[in-house]
Amino acid sequence: MTITQLRAFLLAATLGSFTAAALALGTAQPTVSELVRKLEVEGGLPLFARTGRRLVLTSAGEELLPWARRVVDGVDGARQTLDALRGITGGVASFGVLRNAGYYFLSDLAERFHAERPGVRTRLVGQNSVEVADGVRGGELEAGLAVLPIDNDGLSVTPLLRDEVVWASADPRRLQAPMTIAAIGDAPLILYDAHYGWNDPTRRQLAERAQLIGVRLEPMIEVENVESALVLVARGMGDTLLSRAVASSAGFPASVGTVSFAEPLFDTIALITREGATLSPATAELARLATEMLRAPSLSTDPL
């Protein structure tokens, strides 16, 4: 039994496939399959039930999983401790950022970090918060920023700031009073993050509130990013909801106005890491810098 075999098993178990594990390890899928097969042969027990498109742990795999995580985390922690003693002069900082990171000045994160740590390679992955959480949980990313709520199983979550979510429309009649959840059901609704739909944290909050009062929300148009949604709103096609940081940005359409919700709605941005894991010195420094930039007084948000 080797650390390489345990790492391959751990990634396959958390990511759900040998292909995803291979991508995380930077190797080929047959290599990961063979590493796990050798582990199964040595232990004399199958670790996965290979049915369907997603790997399912057997009872033996369930028993091995916490031990594999402990061993892998221990080896990674030992290596990171030695790296720290040498100083942050190399390595890779792997960090997930918000897809709307530019609205929180995080587009400058890579430039600033590189200026301070020129010897460190930086890997910033811009994703939906659901993907950031899955990437951190599965070990593809060491840490990241996510909008809450997320599934926090296996994660350590540190809230950093709160940003108000507002209603946006080009029709002044729909901005005369604070928006209510009940009124949304009658509005021509345009929503972004189409791929994740109601699993997106902001949309999830909205759906939960609507469910409590018996309102079913059906978007008229769904697009993938907030910029596309704003173009449609500016053309009078419908209304959307977005964070105050987006509404305060320089490129926000002049023809679009905003109004708060009658019951205020907020995006809470948090730093997430894998529970029990030790960040590498490079990623720990990148997380510190991202936190500092998010909490800068120039942002129209509430630091937590």
From TrEMBL:
GO terms for molecular function: DNA binding; DNA-binding transcription factor activity. One of its GO terms (cellular component) is cytosol. Residues 1-58 form the HTH lysR-type domain. PROSITE patterns: HTH_LYSR (PS50931). Gene3D superfamilies: 3.40.190.290, Winged helix-like DNA-binding domain superfamily/Winged helix DNA-binding domain (1.10.10.10). Residues 1-24 form the signal peptide. It comes from the Bacteria. InterPro entries: HTH-type_LysR_regulators, LysR_HTH_N, LysR_subst-bd, WH-like_DNA-bd_sf, WH_DNA-bd_sf. The keyword Methyltransferase does not apply. Pfam families: HTH_1, LysR_substrate. Keywords: DNA-binding, Signal, Transcription, Transcription regulation. Belongs to the LysR transcriptional regulatory family. This is DNA-binding transcriptional regulator, LysR family.
